[in-house]
Design a protein that fits this description.
alpha/beta; Amidase signature (AS) enzymes; eleven-stranded mixed β-sheet
Length: 490
Amino acid sequence: MIALCDLTAHEALDLLRSGEITSVALTASALDRILAVDNDVCAYLTLTPEQALAEASAADALRRAGQDLPLLGIPVAFKDNLSTRGIPTSCGSRMLDGYVPPYDATVVRRVKEAGAVVLGKTNMDAFAMGSSTENSAFFPTHNPWDLARVPGGSSGGSAAAVAAGEALLALGSDTGGSVRQPAALCGVVGVRPTYGLCSRYGLIAFASSLDQVGPVARDVTDAALLLGVIAGHDPADSTSRLDSGSDYTAYLARKDLAGLRVGVLQSHPEDGIQAEVADATRRALKTLRDLGAELVDVSLPHGVYALSTYYLIAPAEASANLARFDGVRYGFRAAADTVEALFSRARGAGFGPEVKRRIMLGTYALSAGYYEAFYIQAQKVRTLIRADFDAAFEAVDVIVGPTSPTTAFMLGERVADPLEMYRADALTLSQALAGIPAISVPCGFDAAGLPVGLQITAPEMQELRMLQVAFAFEQATDWHRRRPSLIESS
């Protein structure tokens, strides 16, 4: 019999509404799974079991009183760069170790107001800088499909928690692929919304023109459900769009794609796509064609520059955003006799190697004599990348391809080679630079039994179209129904 924590959120909601299960039982099942497997997976940095059970009991009381909310009684986890009132928020870094926010991020507040039960905070690469969750200052997270491999990053804790049944839903953040890439590597669904659709208020900033909060879920319906809760205008975020959110699940009835034009890239931004990833993608495209979609060749000529463009713009913004963590105003404070020594020691001890590397890259790109040559040029290329998508979407409705060039790699395999690590995000950077939505859905497995993700990209504010395509593909396959063997042995 399936454990309650292995249900999808919408399945659990149906059972909660019918009275067949309680939120207390559902939450206890998730906590039991955490107790059974998280010493191996290491998905969580902070757990709130007493609070979770109290919230679950309150959710059951509300339901008995006749109330219903979109996520009433559903156990949810939050990435540790989302501010949570009264719960430590370290951003995976020693710089913020022990910090307890006095307020909730807007997306956290909306999830709570929707009735969710808070399980805790998930592990991440420090300040969301990484593709493997090995840059956490505390410990690496392990992939539930193979504990010797990475879960992806930087939202690796959220993806691993959902894949392992340690949460029914989770929130992550996606700056250059940090929701989609770990979703692909862990065999779950991850969404990067249109830039500005979801509030960034209370999200500890990495790169402000790129950061977006997104759902991590077991299937497309759950992802649509959570996206509908967190989307919508927020006056506390100056980049928040005026467009309101939507009940995206109401549009997930279509199971055929007749008349839909699916763009297929003729070349990818980077070489090195694993043969089994390419094979799974080709099979997925055949499924889409069998559903009635027309496959159309498209090109994104400037996509080849996405990697270098991203690693100029994102570090430059990180250099500016992280300047506040100096041991005086914010962050870890080191013992020192002078202000200069305080700055140096606080930042030297508080930031990890990858954060320091990106701060130095960004500071260099913004420095006198190099600003025009590097940062301004990168912004110009970013405009060209956006124009490529605009041109492509005149001919097609969505663009489909692999989410990650490879399946999950071994822990420690790329730590000593930053450039190779950066290439793990090669297929997710263009969408982030263009500010458009994309979703990763499971589409197969390699010979080692590791998940492969399919990325579906849509035009700006076309989340409904993106989700409809993802849902139709999902209904025609069963990849999303598979669970790691770790669950079966727990």
